[in-house]
């Protein structure tokens, strides 16, 4: 392998595209190999939140933050579960580099950042938390700038692409999904249809009334980077190329890849960056890492996320770094009412609903996925199976998934009964206890204070997932109106993991002795989140991925960090 060989990036999600861009912008050619026929990966389906403490965008908006406050926040959150999983050197490398990386991407014109207004850090109770300022996303981009590549970009069915966070936080996430005809965003999955017919502005002067293709959320963030990548002559993107093996020399250094295509196998030589995201669609890895079987698991990530990067790294001596399963960013969700695939949404956090286990008892802050995951998968007190219970007020106000407010659920998809006791019997729940649980919950809903589990105390959830028009709490409402409804939940992955390939703070893949494997790097969610340990906050996955892309790209191009 020579210094003139191109860098081979495996995966064309956000981290992969950003790594390619940083490498090419610093003078080295890149080939990006994407297993699927579309680019964008899990990031394109996401909310497009990029978390970064002490960032320049917040500073120009007048938000006061510092690296010291950011460090305090992460350390406080990480201290409550498996604090030993936080890699001190990697943490400090990310903490101190991330603000520079975010500014670098904007200076390179890879993205126009905007701060998400009024969105608090997850753990508002933690020392160092801020009420806003650490979440970045893209200013609206017109999809037409991508030319022919627009049709190769994944389009999120899980967020109301075309609207902005200003709209979502004002109306509520669920309400933003419902159009003037009462249809929901999930009704237009995997299409370019369903964009709002009204104009919007994000404060940057972009008016969607003048464009048929405004891109926001994860789709927009990826589109921004893809637009800039396409301007680099030294980047080649090849879709439909699934890497199946890493090549090594006699010293164990990685020197290239073999990939399968529709036209046969290909071999390429050069250093390799794994950017393949997680293992969501590999049942064996899901069972090994999360301890979940098919009946308790699903994913809304692209089906190309099959654990390829993890298996490739292990084939040359890379290691799996483990973080507790109940610290993984996975969400309560359901099998799609269409009979195929899976779904999730804010409905579980909205008023007139609650989550219980088979005993009919609540056991967590059931509006907050962090607590739901932490308690449901507690290895010393698991609460599987778990169920979402709601009343007809919830159906009339919010609907569920592709069923709009006031709509009828598809036959056989959810259970329905005139009483909670009968509903419990249908779901295999203790119906008598379910009624008692609802009675107690209803008292909390009337008062707006959940004295048992703190539903309504997480500012992020109240703003991002609740109903801003509901009082006295955006996430609390009585369950009193028959018929009552219920569904068995499952955990749903979104292409964000915590366990993964073990790397150092610069993205170098490590062997069993903790030594970097020459020629092999990893960026994004394929790499274990030892950077922050169990201190996950929405946006850290994309923020860390972009920071690693910045570091790896400069190193492989032989350029110092600015």
Describe this structure in words.
This protein has 562 residues and is α+β, with helices and mostly antiparallel strands. It contains 16 helices and 24 strands. The strands form 7 sheets. A 6-stranded mixed β-sheet has the order 8-2-1-12-24-23, covered by helices on one side. A 4-stranded mixed β-sheet has the order 13-21-15-16. The chain has a 4-stranded antiparallel β-sheet with strand order 17-18-20-19. Helix 1 runs parallel beside helix 8, helix 1 (14-25) runs parallel beside helix 16 and helix 5 (88-107) crosses helix 16. The chain is globular and about 70 Å long.
Produce a short descriptive summary:
By secondary structure, the protein is of the alpha+beta class. The protein has 16 helices and 24 strands.
What order do the helices and strands come in, and which of them pair?
Layout: E1 7-10, H1 14-25, E2 30-34, H2 41-45, E3 50-51, H3 56-60, H4 67-78, H5 88-107, E4 113-115, E5 135-138, E6 141-142, H6 165-171, H7 173-177, E7 214-215, H8 217-229, E8 235-239, E9 242-248, E10 254-261, E11 264-269, E12 272-274, H9 283-290, E13 297-299, H10 308-315, E14 320-321, E15 331-335, E16 342-344, E17 353-357, H11 369-376, E18 386-390, H12 392-398, E19 415-417, H13 420-427, H14 431-447, H15 459-464, E20 484-488, E21 490-493, E22 500-501, E23 508-510, E24 516-522, H16 540-556
Parallel strand pairs: 1-2, 1-12, 2-8, 12-24, 13-21
Antiparallel strand pairs: 3-5, 4-5, 6-7, 9-10, 10-11, 14-22, 15-16, 15-21, 17-18, 18-20, 19-20, 23-24
Helix pairs in contact: 1-8, 1-16, 5-16, 13-14
């Amino acid at each position: 392998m020579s210094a003139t060989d191109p860098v081979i990036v495996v995966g064309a999600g956000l981290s992969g595209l950003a790594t390619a861009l940083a490498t090419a912008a610093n003078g080295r050619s890149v080939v990006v190999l994407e297993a699927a026929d579309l680019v964008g990966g899990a990031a394109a389906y996401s909310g497009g939140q990029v978390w970064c403490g002490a960032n320049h965008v917040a500073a120009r908006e007048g938000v006061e933050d510092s690296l010291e406050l950011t460090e305090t926040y992460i350390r406080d959150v990480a201290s409550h579960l498996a604090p030993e999983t936080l890699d001190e050197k990697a943490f400090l490398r990310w903490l101190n580099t991330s603000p520079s990386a975010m500014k670098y991407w904007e200076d390179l014109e890879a993205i126009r950042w905007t701060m998400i207004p009024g969105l608090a850090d997850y753990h508002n109770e933690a020392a160092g938390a801020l009420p806003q300022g650490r979440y970045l996303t893209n200013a609206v981009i017109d999809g037409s700038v991508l030319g022919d590549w627009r049709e190769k970009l994944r389009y999120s069915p899980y967020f109301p692409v075309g609207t902005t966070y200003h709209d979502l936080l004002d109306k509520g996430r669920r309400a933003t999904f419902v159009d003037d005809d009462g249809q929901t965003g999930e009704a237009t999955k995997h299409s370019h249809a369903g964009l709002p017919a009204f104009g919007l502005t994000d404060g940057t002067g972009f008016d969607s009334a003048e464009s048929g293709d405004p891109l926001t959320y994860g789709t927009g963030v990826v589109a921004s980077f893809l637009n800039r990548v396409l301007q680099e002559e030294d980047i080649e993107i090849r879709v439909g190329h699934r890497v199946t093996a890493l090549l090594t020399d006699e010293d164990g250094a990685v020197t290239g890849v073999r990939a399968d295509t529709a036209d046969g196998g290909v071999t390429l030589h050069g250093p390799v960056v794994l950017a393949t995201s997680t293992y969501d669609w590999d049942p064996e890895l899901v069972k090994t890492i999360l301890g979940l079987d098919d009946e308790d698991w699903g994913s809304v990530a692209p089906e190309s996320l099959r654990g390829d990067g993890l298996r490739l790294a292990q084939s040359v001596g890379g290691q799996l770094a483990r973080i507790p399963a109940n610290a993984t960013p996975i969400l309560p969700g359901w099998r799609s009412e269409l009979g195929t695939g899976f779904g999730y949404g804010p409905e579980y956090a909205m008023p007139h609903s609650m989550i219980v286990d088979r005993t009919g008892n609540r056991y967590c802050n059931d509006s907050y996925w962090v607590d739901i995951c932490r308690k449901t998968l507690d290895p010393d007190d698991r609460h599987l199976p778990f169920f979402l219970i709601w009343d007809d007020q919830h159906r009339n106000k919010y609907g569920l998934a592709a069923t709009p407010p006031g709509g009828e659920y598809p036959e056989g998809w959810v259970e329905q009964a005139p009483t909670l006791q009968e509903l419990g019997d249908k779901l295999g729940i203790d119906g008598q206890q379910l009624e008692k649980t609802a009675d107690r919950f209803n008292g909390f809903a009337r008062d707006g204070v959940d004295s048992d589990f703190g539903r309504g105390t997480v500012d992020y959830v109240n703003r991002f997932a609740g109903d801003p028009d509901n009082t006295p709490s955006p996430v609390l409402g009585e369950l009193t109106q028959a018929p009552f409804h219920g569904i068995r939940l499952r955990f749903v992955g979104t292409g964000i993991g915590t366990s993964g390939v073990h790397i150092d703070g610069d993205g170098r893949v490590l062997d069993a002795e903790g030594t970097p494997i020459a020629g092999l790097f990893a960026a994004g969610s394929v790499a274990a989140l030892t950077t922050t340990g169990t201190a996950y906050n929405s946006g850290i996955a994309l923020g860390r991925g972009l920071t690693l892309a910045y570091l790896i790209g400069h190193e492989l191009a032989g350029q110092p960090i600015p």
